[in-house]
Specification:
Number of helices: 1
CATH class of one domain: Mainly Beta
Strand content: 25-35%
Structural class: mainly beta
Bound molecules: zinc ion
Radius of gyration: 17 Å
Distance between the termini: 37 Å
Low-confidence stretches: none
Largest sheet: 7 strands, mixed
Number of strands: 10
Mean pLDDT: 95
Length: 159
Amino acid sequence: MSDVRRPVATGGCQCGAVRYALLSGPEGSVCHCRMCQKAVGGPFAALARLPKDDVVWTRGRPAAFRSSASGLREFCRDCGTPLTFAYDDARHMEVTIGSLDRPGGTPPQRVFGVESRLAWVADLVPGRLPEMRSDELPARDRTSRQHPDHETPADWKPL
Ligand SMILES: [Zn+2]
Ligand SMILES: [Zn+2]
């Protein structure tokens, strides 16, 4: 029997080598812990939590790094996009909100790792710092090689 559950969300890495589908709606969170900062190369990780059984790889498979004795972080071996975090003994796992095709659909409901929160994160609220749109930056060839935010045929290749 095939799995007839329909995906409620899809996502994948920047280059498109690894794609996934989520079979239930995840709960969003943010984690400021030092391990999440390092794993995503950013000030915090934005994560979407759901049962491990509800995450299906639809193209390629991620590489993995064991970041602690009980934690595994998966990423694209080709482009480096951080994709998941999970504890070995947990029934749930997390996918990175930024790798979802519709990241705005999973707003954070909880904040973790606040002991490591960088003080300047508070400055990121709209209006606190000078702001620009991407198209206001100097002209250069911005032809995207990033996988689009929707499903594509298996033979999709970047430009
Ligand atoms: Zn990739
Ligand atoms: Zn963390």
